[in-house]
Design brief:
Helices cover 0% and strands 54% of the residues. The chain is mainly beta and 160 residues long. A six-stranded antiparallel sheet has the order 7-8-9-1-14-13, with no helix packed on it. It has a three-stranded antiparallel sheet with strand order 2-11-12, with no helix packed on it. Strands 4-3-10 form a three-stranded antiparallel sheet, with no helix packed on it. The termini are close together.
Length: 160
């Protein structure tokens, strides 16, 4: 059993409080089996709202799956209390945004998509529909009269 942190890094322009929005936010991941090393070829997602019981009544996880290659049952769980926004002060630095508890697998890649939200750094203007699939996002903060943006989105995983 191991904990892995997803570290997020981006350049923020007049924006702060970049965060996943809602319990149904989808964390799109590629996962590697700790037993045989098989890496999923398709993006898989985990959410806080989905919970699957573990074999033998050992609790539950956000996702339980059998490895296609070795048939080992593996699981990944989002640690709810570790979800943290990425703020203006964090710009251009890696910051852990969420942690996953993994049994038998580890996350090896992350694909940000729709479902993020952010706020204007000076005005607090809410931007509830931020899509980071293209690794860049721009909009206009009418209260401040200036453009806002999230650029050069990247990530890395760390062992916690």
């Amino acid at each position: 059993m191991g904990k892995f942190g997803l570290q997020f890094k981006a350049t923020l322009e007049n924006i702060t409080n970049v965060r996943p929005l809602g319990e149904d936010f989808r964390w799109f991941l590629k996962l590697k089996c700790g037993n045989c090393g098989e890496i999923s070829d398709k993006w898989q997602y985990v959410t806080l709202v989905e919970s699957t019981p573990l074999k033998g009544g050992r609790g539950s996880a956000s996702m339980v799956q059998k490895c296609k290659l070795c048939s080992r049952e593996n699981s990944i769980d989002i640690l709810r209390d570790t979800i943290t926004p990425y703020n203006a002060d964090d710009s251009e630095r890696f910051k852990t945004m969420v942690q996953f508890e993994c049994r038998g697998l580890e996350p090896v890649d992350f694909q940000p998509q729709a479902g993020f939200a952010a706020a204007g750094a000076e005005t607090g203007t809410q931007f509830p529909e931020v899509n980071l699939l293209e690794k860049d996002w721009t909009d206009y903060d009418e209260k401040a009269g200036e453009s806002v943006g999230i650029y050069e989105v990247t990530h890395q995983f760390i062992k916690c």
